[in-house]
Amino acid sequence: MKYLLKVFLLAALWQPLWAADSPPATFLLKPAALQQAQQRLQQGDTALQRALGALLRNADKALQNGPYSVVFKSKTPPGGTKHDYMSVGPYWWPDSTKPDGLPYIRKDGQVNPERFSIRDAEYHNALCKDVLTLGLAWYYTGKAAYANKAAALLRTWFIDEATRMNPHLNYGQAIPGRTKGRGIGLIDTHNLAKLIDGIQLLKNSTALRAEDYKAIQAWYTAFLNWMRNSPIGKDEADEHNNHGTWYDVQTVSIALFTGQPQLARQMLQERTMSRIESQLKEDGSQPHELARTLSWSYSSMNLKGFFELALLAENVSIDLWHYETPGHKSIQKAFTWMLPFAAGKKPWEHQQIKPADYSTYLELAAVARQQYPGVDLAPLWQQRGQVKDAYMLQLTGWTF
């Protein structure tokens, strides 16, 4: 009770700061839902007050994190500058039959610890998580420390000459003895849509200056050009599994962020709709993901990509939630195909060399609840319980 009273008092103190005149221009998160959650907080919604407390605990931790930069690595990429992003393919290992271990050989689903000796991918994921968390914390509280920290993280990664990343991934997921970089490396930045939403939440703060916002837009304009026109970017665009899906998530979200909604619409119509046709079976199963040694994990990951694309598509008035291809394939069928396995009604008979993690699917179910009210999710909740990070779903409008 004392904790709730403290939150209510803090909310009263913060109210002049977080009573926004208009909803934020986010793309994955729904602006109206954010504004509605804010209003409910002001009215003393108990569940959302608890959710806010959880969010702020994570935001307070984020205040101590970073900064993050690609120049912090000890190894210099082949381009001759540490400003170039670099990573090593996770499933590639030294060949024990060769004196020097080269060229590396693939062990699908088994991560080589060498992957973590270069931390550019880890830093980018942390940047995405922290900026979104801090952006939400600032939006709901108006506390300047959150916005200031997020803006500092952004300037380090995108703007400051000493630490900024060059806008390309030419050396992503390299394989020793085989290649200096691959199109597959673009999966490393698949979380950038969340980062962009974090930036959008901060757009009207005094911490993120207008010139810095424009500089980040310019960075992403250059990155999108590289994604669409470089040989490595084109290679990833042609992938027929989760890599292609997440390529679309990134390009569409960047197009929206850089003020190119027509390009976003074009990519959704020309690429994403055809991916639904090529990647799914009519029953909703995902054969490219089921062929992996982590079949549940990759099926969940790919479905999450399609869900994010459906959320992004709403910004250009395209309904992917209920879209069905000429071959009668759809995102809804992909979700419902996995449901009985997640709910424990059917055994998963495909290869999964690590324990299945159901948290991603639970998060998708919380979103699907809004889009597919006719789907019975009660057995899933009974089997799996509470969704991980439920506060994020509550504060962004997706109630569990």
Overview features:
400 residues, globular, mainly alpha, Glycosyltransferase, single chain, two-stranded parallel sheet
Description of the structure:
The chain has 400 residues and is mainly alpha-helical. It has a single domain, classed as Chondroitin AC/alginate lyase (Glycosyltransferase, Alpha/alpha barrel). The protein contains 16 helices and four strands. It is globular and about 65 Å long. The model is unreliable at 1-19 (pLDDT under 50).
CATH superfamily: Chondroitin AC/alginate lyase
In the CATH scheme, the class would be Mainly Alpha
CATH topology: Glycosyltransferase
Count of DSSP helices? 16
What is the percentage of strand-forming residues?
under 5%
Give a quick rundown of the structure.
The chain is mostly helical. The chain is built from 16 helices and four strands.
Write the topology of this structure.
Blueprint (H helix, E strand, L loop, with lengths): L1 H17 L12 H12 L3 H17 L23 E3 L3 E2 L11 E2 L13 H22 L2 H16 L11 E4 L17 H11 L7 H20 L1 H7 L4 H16 L3 H19 L7 H4 L4 H19 L17 H12 L16 H13 L6 H7 L5 H6 L5
Parallel strand pairs: 1-4
Antiparallel strand pairs: 2-3
Helix pairs in contact: 1-4, 3-4, 4-5, 4-6, 5-7, 6-9, 7-8, 7-9, 9-10, 9-12, 12-14
